[in-house]
């Protein structure tokens, strides 16, 4: 078990930094803000902690290619259609969502 260190035992400049960090943590973190800071390389008053970096990597990527893909479409599909889409994804080494986007693009391209 790690040894506990009391705030009073720290040098004054370290105590002040701990207090600033504590106040920041108590205000809460906006993951969107942290992600924007990293993407725009605006710098940090400190390096993000491993836990903050982990939170920033969570979820699905919002970029597909060069375009921000933040729209969600939901639809119903019969079991055979689902099986065929999953098979297509497996055959082409894709995730199902990527396969659906590819198939939509191909279908729209052939319709023109």
Describe this protein with a few key phrases.
two-stranded antiparallel ribbon; elongated; 5 helices; 112 residues; mainly alpha; 2 strands; single chain; 54% helix
How is the topology of this model organized?
Blueprint: H1 12-27, H2 31-39, H3 50-56, E1 63-64, E2 67-68, H4 79-91, H5 96-111
Antiparallel strand pairs: 1-2
Helix pairs in contact: 4-5
Tell me what the structure shows.
- This protein is mostly helical and 112 residues long.
- The protein folds into 2 domains: 9-59, no CATH class; 64-112.
- Helices cover 54% and strands 4% of the residues.
- The chain contains 5 helices and 2 strands.
- It has helices spanning 12-27, 31-39, 50-56, 79-91, 96-111, and strands at 63-64, 67-68.
- The protein has a two-stranded antiparallel ribbon with strand order 1-2.
- A hairpin with a 2-residue loop joins strand 1 and strand 2 (67-68).
- Helix 4 packs across helix 5.
- The model has no long low-confidence stretch (mean pLDDT 79).
């Amino acid at each position: 078990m790690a040894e506990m260190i009391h705030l009073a035992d720290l040098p004054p400049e370290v105590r002040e930094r701990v207090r600033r960090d504590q106040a920041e943590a108590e205000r809460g973190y906006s993951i969107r803000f942290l992600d924007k800071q990293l993407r725009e390389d605006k710098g940090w008053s400190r390096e993000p902690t491993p836990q903050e970096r982990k939170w920033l990597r969570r979820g699905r990527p919002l970029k597909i290619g060069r375009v921000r893909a933040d729209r969600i479409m939901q639809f119903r599909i019969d079991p055979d259609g689902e099986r065929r889409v999953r098979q297509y994804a497996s055959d082409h080494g894709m995730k199902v969502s990527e396969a659906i986007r590819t198939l939509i693009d191909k279908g729209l391209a052939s319709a023109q």
